[in-house]
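Per your request, structure below.
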């Protein structure tokens, strides 16, 4: 394996023009994500910068010579402004005809199902596109998307892609749970152009006989269903069948959760996800299959058409994730350059061009973890593979192959580690061994599945192929499970803030400049970055030692409260939450705040009363006492949880309090009644399910 020179000093900027565009373009998108600048300001900035750059050419020569840097700077600012404008335009809420602008509480909504229903524990999940609103006795075209949850009803047929529904129900806003350190689900939905959600019962919608949707999408779904039926018929059921479906076509609904956790613990969850590796295998296979075509311009065009048709068909079949789109765009550029234009370009320029085109098409990909990890892994391999490989001069052929695989894994890990720590807060220690096992086996399995699909018309041969694939998947899963169960296989609860992540990348940049390019100031940059890492860590530890707060978590169906002082946290609530998925919410919050279980200073508890540094919290989860005491009981906060039948007026006669807190496990109708009563009497209240986790600083 060989890549072009990794020294940036050798790679001229003129050979990679998209590298000069991608950085300001990303900067503009990032600024708009967090500042939301007005579009007119952005438009004026772009126009003024372009006009100034154009007028610069008419200045006297001596002025142009002295200010030669100015046109480039103006163009960089215009590119950044263009990125910000594209992000603003990509938000459906800023487009004319957004359905929420014309909707009333009584209007009907015409929806179209945009993806097959995914079965959940108590419902089906899907997304729908808003087609029109029925307002003032007429249908008005509208734009928008909704997240749908449809209750299970065996008496009605399951909805399919393209089905159209008429709905009369008010959508709810998609909210973030607000728990410290938790995944920002609201931001993720915004990046998918989803802002509201609907929970539908059978009586809430009417299914029309007319269907819509794309014929291409229907064909792709039929192709996916055919692959799934072949795998289930010849490979069987269980973890092996779910893994087979995920490996080849990216269908993850049947994946066993314990298997996914095993792959995550060993750092090779990318094997399960459809990624650039799959398209690289497909690209190499297509080149081998088409090698019989004679050389020539028209033969090259035919090769390009066949290769691109298969590559993009596979990308769409598997769901077109960020990593697949990155590979598809890169291989498209390579194929067109090789077979149509008959020229080669810098691989760095191809990588930057693919990122630029994808971000121009969908700017929200900039905050997609898969997009970031995919590009960082490829860039890291391009930069570090060759220097790592040349560190050890090996003569034995089998050792050369082994060291090549290890070098690729090490190179990819270098630039993906900081962002992985930022998102997942863990590091797999045996990722090299796991990659050595899983990458070759998964490659053989993928080719075997393709052969199985080809043999599907011949049941006897397909049965033997299915048994062989099932055995290989079982062997791969067993090896990964064994590696994940080894001592010290996984380092967990690693706190890595955004500032620390930036410092780590600056440290890598300094090392790369010093090592790869021989630029001595790179060592100073690395030293300063290391100092920045230490300072960032020290600041975080200082803040952790000084924290003192009460947190009521936003966890449906459970009561969860943490009393925090320094690095100690005392949990109060439903102990059964620690045996459920809700425990991950508490663990993520404690990792974010550097906490461990303990009894913090100043904490006192008597039954449902808790006192912590002068703040008293009362938990009410049942009916109120019938007798009114002579003196009201004092409490700073009263938490209503588990749907207690409480009358707010009677509550006022029993307790003297400052704030009512409604937990996320209460019924929505009951919370609505409580809110109305509080507003009528002027009482302050906080709704955890709507406003996020309640956090009170007590010092």
């Amino acid at each position: 394996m060989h890549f072009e020179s990794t020294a940036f000093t050798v790679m001229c900027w003129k050979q990679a023009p998209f590298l000069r565009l991608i950085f300001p373009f990303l900067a503009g998108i990032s600024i708009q994500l967090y500042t939301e600048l007005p579009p007119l300001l952005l438009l004026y900035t772009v126009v003024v910068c372009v006009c100034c750059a154009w007028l610069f050419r008419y200045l006297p020569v001596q002025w142009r010579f002295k200010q030669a840097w100015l046109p480039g700077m103006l163009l960089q600012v215009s590119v950044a402004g263009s990125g910000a404008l594209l992000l603003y335009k990509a938000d459906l809420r800023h487009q004319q005809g957004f359905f929420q602008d014309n909707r009333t509480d009584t209007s009907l909504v015409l929806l179209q199902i945009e993806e097959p229903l995914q079965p959940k524990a108590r419902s089906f999940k899907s997304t729908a596109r808003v087609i029109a609103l029925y307002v003032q006795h007429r249908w008005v075209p509208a734009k928008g998307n909704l997240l749908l949850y449809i209750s299970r009803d065996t008496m009605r047929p399951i909805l399919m892609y393209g089905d159209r529904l008429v709905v009369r129900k008010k959508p709810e806003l998609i909210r973030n749970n607000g728990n410290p350190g938790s995944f920002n689900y609201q931001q993720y939905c915004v990046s998918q152009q989803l802002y509201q959600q609907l929970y539908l019962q059978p009586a809430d919608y009417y299914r029309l006989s007319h269907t819509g949707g794309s014929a291409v999408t229907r064909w792709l779904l039929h192709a996916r269903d055919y692959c799934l039926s072949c795998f289930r018929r010849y490979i069987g059921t269980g973890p092996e069948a779910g893994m087979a479906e995920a490996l080849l076509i990216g269908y993850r609904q049947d994946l066993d959760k314990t298997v996914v956790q095993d792959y995550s613990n060993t750092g090779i969850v990318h094997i399960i996800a459809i990624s650039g590796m799959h398209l690289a295998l497909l690209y190499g296979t297509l080149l081998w299959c088409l090698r019989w075509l004679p050389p020539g311009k028209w033969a090259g065009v035919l090769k390009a058409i066949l290769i691109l048709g298969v590559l993009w068909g596979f990308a769409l079949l598997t769901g077109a994730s960020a990593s697949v789109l990155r590979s598809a765009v890169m291989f498209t550029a390579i194929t067109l350059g090789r077979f149509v234009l008959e020229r080669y370009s810098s691989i760095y320029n191809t990588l930057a061009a693919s990122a630029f085109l994808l971000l121009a098409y969908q700017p929200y990909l900039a905050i997609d973890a898969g997009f970031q990890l995919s590009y960082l892994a490829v860039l890291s391999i391009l930069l570090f593979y060759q220097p790592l490989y040349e560190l050890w001069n090996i003569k034995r052929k089998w050792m050369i192959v082994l060291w090549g695989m290890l070098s690729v894994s090490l190179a990819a890990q270098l630039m993906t580690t900081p962002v992985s720590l930022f998102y997942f807060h863990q590091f797999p220690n045996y990722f090299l061994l796991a990659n050595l096992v899983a990458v070759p086996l998964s490659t053989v399995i993928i080719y075997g599945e393709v052969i199985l699909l080809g043999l599907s018309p011949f049941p006897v041969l397909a049965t033997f192929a299915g048994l062989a694939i099932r055995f290989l998947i079982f062997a791969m899963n067993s090896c990964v499970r064994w590696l994940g169960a080894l001592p010290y296989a996984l380092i967990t609860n690693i706190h890595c803030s955004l500032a620390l992540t930036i410092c780590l990348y600056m440290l890598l940049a300094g090392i790369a400049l010093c090592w790869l390019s021989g630029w001595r100031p790179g060592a100073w940059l690395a030293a300063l970055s290391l100092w920045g890492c230490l300072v960032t860590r020290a600041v975080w530890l200082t803040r952790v030692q000084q924290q003192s707060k009460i947190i009521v978590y936003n966890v449906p169906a459970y009561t969860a409260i943490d009393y925090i002082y320094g690095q100690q946290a005392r949990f109060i609530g439903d102990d059964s939450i620690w045996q459920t998925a809700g425990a991950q919410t508490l663990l993520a919050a404690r990792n974010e705040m550097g906490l461990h279980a303990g009894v913090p200073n100043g904490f006192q508890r008597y039954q449902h009363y808790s006192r912590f540094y002068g703040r008293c919290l009362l938990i009410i989860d049942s009916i109120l006492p019938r007798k009114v005491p002579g003196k009201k009981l004092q409490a700073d906060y009263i938490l209503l949880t588990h749907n207690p039948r409480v009358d707010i007026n009677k509550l006022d006669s029993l307790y003297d309090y400052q704030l009512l807190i409604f937990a996320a496990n209460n019924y929505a109708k009951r919370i609505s009644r409580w809110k109305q009563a509080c507003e009528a009497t002027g009482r302050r209240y906080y709704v955890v399910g709507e406003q996020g986790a309640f956090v009170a600083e007590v010092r």
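Residues 548-697 form one domain.

Regards,
D.
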